[in-house]
Write a structure and sequence with these properties.
The structure is a single chain. With 273 residues, this protein is of the alpha+beta class. It is 18% helix and 35% strand. It has helices spanning 36-39, 125-148, 179-191, 203-209; strands at 9-10, 20-30, 50-54, 56-57, 71-74, 84-92, 99-107, 118-123, 154-160, 166-171, 196-201, 225-230, 234-237, 251-260, 263-271. The strands form four sheets. A six-stranded antiparallel beta barrel has the order 2-3-7-6-5-8. Strand 14 and strand 15 (263-271) form a beta hairpin. Helix 2 crosses helix 3. It is elongated and about 65 Å long. The model has no long low-confidence stretch (mean pLDDT 93).
Length: 273
C-alpha cells in the first residue's frame, strides 16, 4: 500500500517486473509465536505454519484491494544444503510493519534455513500478471467513468481487485442505462494502448495530478506518494502492481452496476484480449 512504512525493503514498489530476487533471511518462526494482532492476518493458516521475513522482498503483501503473491524461497545455487520454502500468503505485520511470508518447507527440512542466510525469491509470475491486469483494469474503469462526466458522480476510495470479485465504488448513483457507455469507453481506452507509469511524487504534485487526493488515503505526508498514472488521463495513489499499458489488461468486462446508500458499485472482470 502506498506510504506503508516497513522495515522490509519492498522491492516491488519500484521494480514490479522483477520475478526473481536474491535477499537475506532476517527471522524464522511459527505463526503461533506471532503477536495476536499479526496471527489474525492469516485467517486460514495453522499454528504450525511458518513465518519467514527477509531484508528485502519482491512478494506483494495483500492490501489495497489486491491479493498477495505466492511462490518460493530457495537456497542459493551451490549451497551445501538445499531447501525450499513455499510462500502461500504475504501480509504487512500490524505490530512492526515488517512483511511476513507465510508458508511451509517443502524440502528437505527447516534446518537448512536460518537468519542471515541468503535465499532466492521466485514469485508465481502468472498469478502476479493476472493481479496486475485486474488492478490496472480497475484504474481504467475509474478513469472511463470520469471521462464520461456522469452528473453528480465522484469516485470513492474503495475498490477490490480480486479475480471474479473485482469492483470499483463511486459516490453517487449511476443508473444502469450508463453501463453500455461505460463499456464502450473502457474498450476505447484499452485499444488506445496508453502507457501506464509508476510515479513517486511529492505531496503538492500528487494533490495536483491524482484523481483522488493522497489526503483521503491515510498516507504518511512525510513520504513521497507512489502513484500509478495512465498517461494523459489521470493517476491514483497506489501501492499495487500494474501492467505497462492499457492494452496489457486484455479485455475488461463491465459486469453490472449496483446501487446502495448513495454509492454505486461497478463490478468487472478481465479476460484475454
Amino acid at each position: 500500500m502506498p506510504g506503508h512504512k516497513s522495515s522490509t525493503k519492498a522491492v516491488f514498489l519500484a521494480e514490479q517486473d522483477r520475478k526473481q530476487h536474491q535477499t537475506t533471511i532476517t527471522s524464522l518462526q511459527t505463526i503461533a509465536s506471532l503477536p495476536e494482532q499479526d496471527r489474525q492476518l492469516f485467517k486460514n493458516a495453522k499454528d504450525t505454519d511458518d513465518i519467514l521475513t527477509t531484508s528485502e522482498t519482491i512478494f506483494y503483501p495483500q492490501g489495497g484491494g489486491q491479493p498477495s503473491d505466492t511462490g518460493y524461497m530457495k537456497s542459493p545455487p551451490g549451497a551445501a544444503e538445499e531447501g525450499t520454502f513455499a510462500v502461500e500468503s504475504v501480509r504487512y505485520a500490524t505490530s512492526s510493519g515488517e512483511i511476513l511470508h507465510c508458508g511451509h518447507f517443502e524440502a528437505p527440512n527447516p534446518s537448512t534455513f536460518h537468519s542471515d542466510q541468503p535465499v532466492t525469491q521466485e514469485i508465481d509470475g502468472e498469478r502476479r500478471e493476472l493481479h496486475s491486469r485486474i488492478h490496472s483494469a480497475g484504474h481504467i474503469l475509474g478513469l472511463a467513468v470520469a471521462e464520461l462526466k456522469i452528473p453528480d458522480i465522484d469516485e470513492g476510495t474503495r475498490a477490490m481487485h480480486f479475480p471474479e470479485s473485482a469492483f470499483v465504488d463511486f459516490k453517487g448513483l449511476i443508473d444502469g442505462k450508463h453501463k453500455d457507455a461505460i463499456q464502450t469507453k473502457v474498450d476505447e481506452l484499452v485499444q488506445q494502448d496508453i502507457p501506464i507509469h509508476v510515479q513517486f511524487w511529492a505531496w503538492p504534485e500528487a494533490r495536483e495530478k491524482c484523481n483522488i487526493s493522497p489526503d483521503e488515503m491515510g498516507l504518511d505526508p512525510s513520504e513521497p506518494v507512489r502513484a500509478v498514472e495512465v498517461e494523459g488521463l489521470g493517476a491514483y495513489p497506489c501501492g499495487g502492481t500494474h501492467v505497462h499499458s492499457t492494452k496489457g489488461v486484455g479485455k475488461i468486462n463491465v459486469r453490472k452496476i449496483t446501487r446502495s446508500k448513495g454509492v454505486s458499485k461497478i463490478s468487472y472482470n478481465v479476460s484475454p484480449g
